Amino acid sequence: MDSISLFSGGFPYVSFYIVAVITAFCCLCALWALRLSPLIILLKVKRKESDGGYSTENSLKKKACGCNCSCGRSGEGSDSTLSCAPYPNGSVGNMHERAPVVVERQSGASMMELLVPEITTHALSYLDYPSLCRLSMTNSSMRRAANDDNAWKALYHKDFTVEQVKITPLNGWKAYYASTRAVVNVNAEFYNIIRQRLLPAMSCLWLNADYVKCIHSSGEFFTGYDAVMESWQLAFNWAEVAFQIRDVRARVLTDMAWVTMKAYVDMETGLFNVTNVYEFHNGQWYMVHHHYSIMPTAWVADHQNMFA
Hints:
alpha+beta, 308 residues, rod-shaped, single chain
C-alpha cells in the first residue's frame, strides 16, 4: 500500500520530466531549421559583404574551379578580373562592380591596333585611293592606320610605278601620292583637250611665259607662249587623228614635274616617245614643255601589236 501510494503520488513529477525533454528536443529542431533557412543565409552574406570579408567566398571559388588560379587568389600578380566561374567572387553584386574593368580593357585597343604593322600595311594595300581616304575619316584608330606612310608607299607603287622605290619624299608618301595624282590628272586633261580641240582650255593649261616650248609630232619647234598657242590653233585645224597613250610615268618635285609616256598615233606615223614638263604656280600645275620624238622603225615593228 505504501509503494502504490508513492508511485501514485510521484506520477505528476514523471510526466513533467517527459514533457520537458520533448519540449527541449522540439526547440533544438526549430533552431536547426531556422539556421538553415534562406533568410538567415542571405543575412550572413550581406553582413560579410558589408564587412569586406571574402575568405569563405574565395575558398568556395577555389573549390568550384578545382585549380590554383587567379580566381582563388593563390598566385602573385594574378589578374583579379579573370575568373573560372560565372560569378567568381560568390555574389552577383560584386560581379557587377568588376564588369566595367573587363569592358574597358577590351575596348582600349581597336582591331587595327592589335594587328602587326606589316599585316595592317598589307591589308590597306588592297584599297584604292578613295577608299583609303574614306577610311581615314571613320575614327582616330582608322585615321592613324590610313595615314601610315608605308600604306601610301604601297598604294603609290600599285597605281603609278615601282621605279621610285628608293626615293624618300620630303613630305611623306601620302603628300607625294597626292601631288603625283594631280600631275597625272592634268596630263590626262591635256590629251582630252587635244581630242576635243579646245583652244581656250589649251591656253589655260599652258603657263604664260616666254620660256615655254613645244615640239609637235611633225618635228616643228615653237618657243614662247604666243607661238605655242598659234601652233595648237594650226594643229586643231588639221584632220582629226586618233591616238592612244600608254606607259605613263610621272616624277614630282616641289614645284616641278615631268611625265613620260608612249603615244601611238596611226600605222603610218607610228609610235612616239612623249615628254611633258609642268611647273606649280599659285596652287595649280601648268605645262611649260611638250616634246614628241619618233621611235626607231625597228622598235615599232617589234611592239606595234601593243597598241592594237
